[in-house]
Design a protein that fits this description.
The chain is mostly helical. It is built from seven helices and two strands. It folds into two domains: 69 residues, no CATH class; 94 residues, no CATH class. It has a two-stranded antiparallel ribbon.
Length: 202
């Protein structure tokens, strides 16, 4: 809410992490059980062990997923790349990480473009589940071929910009850290060390 992305964040969270967590919670609750049965419905049984295992697993998924969704809602990819370069990371490692971050948005945009092209040719891409599945399978081929073609273009673009050069590149996006950034970094390091100490020695 303080970041100003509450509406967009909530919508994305409910469409992704919440659905996955709810599905895993239901499956774990009814499939993992032992002697301590606390409830039953037809052939399904709920035990305290299964309920505890479900809460543990889904809480971890929600915690990690919620943080990642919020992080990418308030941070642009170019700022992440600039911060990594400013910290002296290997540019090949930066490229691999950024490519992974951009993979899903690029595939989604590509799927939408191909779906629009198929609709313009009279192919039904909307309707019930069966109709969508029938239209989804023919789109896989163009998506894979387009991805391969884009990778080749990306390699040529990187080489034209002297990606393989060993010299340090010039930062086009400046990253200016304030005292609050350094203070927050030290606070996070101290907290992580405390969690590590507590988990190992307690």
């Amino acid at each position: 809410m303080l970041s100003g992305v509450a509406k967009r964040y909530t919508s994305l969270f409910l469409k992704s992490i919440f659905i996955i967590s709810l599905f895993i919670f239901i499956i774990q609750t009814f499939l993992v059980y032992h002697d301590h049965i606390i409830g039953s419905w037809y052939i399904f049984k709920v035990s305290s062990t299964g309920l505890q295992a479900s809460l543990t697993m889904t809480s971890k998924i929600v915690a990690i997923g919620a943080i990642l969704i919020w992080f990418f809602q308030v941070t642009q990819v170019k700022d992440i790349a600039a911060a990594m370069q400013n910290a002296g990371w290997n540019k090949k490692l930066i490229f691999v990480m950024l490519s992974t971050m951009q993979l899903i948005p690029q595939m989604t945009s590509m799927m939408n473009t191909i779906a629009d092209a198929q609709r313009s040719r009279g192919v039904e891409t909307e309707g019930n589940l069966i109709t969508r599945m029938k239209s989804f399978v023919p789109m896989l081929g163009p998506v894979v071929l387009t991805s391969i073609e884009q990778n080749e273009e990306r390699v040529l673009t990187l080489e034209s910009r002297a990606f393989s050069n060993r010299q340090r590149p010039t930062l086009m996006v400046p990253v200016n850290k304030t005292k609050a950034d350094y203070l927050l970094s030290w606070i996070i390091i101290i907290i992580m060390l405390g969690i590590f100490y507590w988990g190992v020695f307690k």
